[in-house]
Structure formats: C-alpha cells, structure tokens
Design goal:
single chain, about 300 residues, alpha+beta, Alpha-Beta Plaits, Sulfite Reductase Hemoprotein, domain 1, 2 domains, 5-stranded mixed β-sheet, 4-stranded antiparallel β-sheet, 8 helices, 11 strands, about 30% helix
Length: about 300
C-alpha cells in the first residue's frame, strides 16, 4: 500500500494494490473500519481497480496501514513500479474469452508485484478476447487471447453462416459464389468457429497475443504486436524478458513506448531476445531492492 499526498499537507490518501480488482469478503470489514476511523468515510475505486482511502491524517497513517496489513492489504500501487495488473473476468463469465485471464493475471502479479524500481511506471492489462475490454493496446504491456482459424474450402457447403458472423469482412463470397477466407483481414476473434456447422472452419490454436509500448497521457500511443505465444508460461517468460530489457537498458522516467521510439522496435526485440538470464534472475528476485542506475 502507498500514501498519496493530498492538497492538504496534513492529509494523505492510502492507495491499495488490488490484483485484478479481486476483493475477498473478509477484507471488506477492515476497509470499512479504516475508512470510518481514519479516513473521511469514503472508498474510491480507481480506473486500474485499486482502492483508495482518502482523507487520512498523516499522524494516523502508520496505524491505518498496520490495520490494513492485518487483512492482507499490501503492495505498491503508484510510482515507478509495475502498477496494479488489470484483467477482464475471462472464461469464468465471458463467452468471448479465449484464454484464462485470471490465471495469468494472478501469476504475473505474484512474479512482478515486487518490481518497485523500474525506469518509469509499467502498466499491464490482459483481455480474454480481441474486444479488449481492459484496453491492452494502451498499456505498456498488453495480452490478448486469440484463436487462429484454418479454412477448409472443400468442406464448405455455402451456408454463409460464417459470413454473417464475421464483422471484419475476412469471409466473403467471390464472383463464383464460393466462400473466401482473407487471412489479412482476420483478427483471430474466433467468432466464425461457432457459426460453421460443417467444420470448414477450425481452430488452429489458441494463443496469447502480446503487445508492447502502449500508453495514454498527453501523447497516447498504441502498443505494437510483439508476437503470439501458445502457452501461459511462454508469454509470462516473454514479459519477464521485456521488463528485464527495459529495466537494464531504459532511461530514467522513460516509458517502454519511448524506449522503443529511441532504439527502434527491431533493436528492442534484439535486446529482449539477447537479455542475459542473470539479469532476468536478479530483477525477478523477490529481495531485489537496488535502485535504478542510469545507463551510460
């Protein structure tokens, strides 16, 4: 947890890290108690699914934090660190989800939640499908669940169900009346897979599509596709490599997007691919607390 300075120098706002926005019932009573006893009686839910307790007098900050810690509230939610990781509900409640967003989100939080000395803030968002409800393309690191499609024209019965389902125009009728699959237009949403009754469209595989370099702020930038990875373990490894390359070679207060602008995407990919295992291990170690050193 962290305290955020308020306009009144005698008051602070306590911001709590809430991985994926998941709050357990046993934590709610402590939140209520701290808000009423030490704050101004309110709780604020932020856009990154953190919880803020505003209006806490500085003289009571330590007592409030100690009480919150007893209920498992901890972690850092602002500063040059890995911010609260956000993820959509995923497969447990969304029919569109292609991957287990909750599983990968919690795993990333357990691995990256301690990273508190990055060159600048790092925001990570996970979406189970291409609808991108968590806005993965405007985060430093974004993960999107996709389903790659294979089209078998010999099995197609020309029912046109897939054409009606495809909103991108990747499936259409040509001049001969045959269904055509345009791979360039396909965004791998997987919607057509549920529409075809003849198995002319099949799923080649479900992947985690990784994006890097997105951001909002005064100069918004969309993340660039870094690749598709077939397993949760592989995409987590890539994210660790990306953050290690960013930590060791990024400049102070330089977001990942600006680092990519400075060195080029091809050079950034090379840095990620060639980052030494020792540098990854040092950064990911839970006891890692050394301050960021500017790169010469």
């Amino acid at each position: 947890m962290r305290s955020v300075s308020a306009r009144d120098p005698n008051l602070v706002t306590i911001r709590l890290r809430v991985p994926l926005g998941i709050v357990y019932p046993e934590q709610l009573d402590i939140l209520r108690e701290v808000a009423l006893r030490y704050g101004d009686g309110r709780l604020h839910l932020t856009t990154r699914k953190t919880i803020e307790i505003p209006g806490v007098p500085v003289k009571f900050l330590e007592q409030a934090q100690a009480l919150l810690s007893r209920a498992g509230w901890d972690g850092s939610a602002y500063g040059n660190n890995v911010r609260n990781i956000v993820a959509c509900p995923g497969r447990y409640s969304c029919a569109n989800a292609q991957v287990d967003t909750q599983g990968i989100g919690l795993e990333l939080d357990s691995i990256l939640g301690h990273l508190d000395h990055m060159p600048a803030k790092v925001k990570i968002a996970i979406s189970g499908c291409v609808n991108g409800c968590t806005h993965p393309l405007i985060n430093d690191v974004g993960v999107v669940g996709v389903s790659r499609v294979i089209f078998y024209p010999e099995k197609c019965k020309m029912c046109r169900s897939c054409i009606k389902q495809c909103r991108e125009g990747a499936l259409y009728l040509n001049s001969l009346g045959s269904v055509v699959y345009d791979r360039e237009k396909c965004i791998d949403c997987g919607d057509c897979l549920h529409a075809c009754p003849n198995e002319a469209l099949l799923c080649e595989g479900v992947y985690y599509r990784l994006y890097v370099g997105g951001k909002m702020g005064r100069s918004p930038m969309l993340g660039q596709c870094f690749g598709d990875f077939p397993t949760q373990g592989e995409v987590i490894e890539q994210i660790q490599r990306i953050l290690a390359a960013y930590y060791w070679y990024g400049n102070h207060e330089e977001r990942i997007a600006h680092m990519i602008e400075r060195v080029s995407m091809s050079s950034f990919r090379k840095l990620v691919a060639e980052i030494e295992p020792e540098k990854i291990d040092v950064l990911m170690h839970p006891e890692f607390t050394i301050e960021l050193q500017a790169n010469s």
